[in-house]
Design brief:
The protein is mainly beta. It is 9% helix and 28% strand. The protein has 3 helices and 12 strands, in the order E-E-E-E-H-E-E-E-H-H-E-E-E-E-E.
Amino acid sequence: MTRFVAAISSLALVIGLGFLTVKPSSAGPEKIEFPANWEKYVLYTIVDRYDVKQYRELYASSQAAVDAMKQGRPLPDRTVLVLIQYKAQADAQGNPLKDANGRFLKGDRTGFTVMEKRQGWGTEYADDIRNGEWEYSAFSTDGRFNANANYRGCFQCHKPHEKQDFVISLASLKGGAGAAGSGTPDVRIAGFAFGPNKLSTTPGQAVTWINGDDSPHQITLLGAGQARGPIMTKART
């Protein structure tokens, strides 16, 4: 019998699930200025993070950037993408409260994470970590730069998505990523968790996963090579 050990890579990890206290090895993050006019940007998707009980909004600095995402094209030079994190409102037991559509209710803002693309950026990084011309940065709710964020983790998370210009959220805008779900899956992804959370198989046996979340997910097999499956949007396998 073979036991599969897998991890979910998702929009959740887009730009910092919860930054660790590791200082960046270069001044790359400091190239990005806090986007003070983010409220004038284009809101292109909203994500409920069940695992960390967060409500998240993602903004793009231009409609041209959103259109490029939808068409699967590289994003324009000087594009800025902003992910804003909020606590989900919760009941007395700590469970997130939801609106009539089943989405989390937005609570207090907790921070900003930003990725920006500029011609010529990224040359100081080795090929195994470089994300094209993108840089990443993080800011507190009042716009102060977070020097202790794990920026290397941002590059590592986005690196496998080179064909999407390193933008994980692009999959949800294009829609239909992965195969259409049919039949009974072996594993369901819901609320950023596996069900069942353990599965034993025989060598060579196919395992079907289906994504029940609004956020796109990707399966990574842990171990030598860390093979990755295709990105799955909602109801895709």
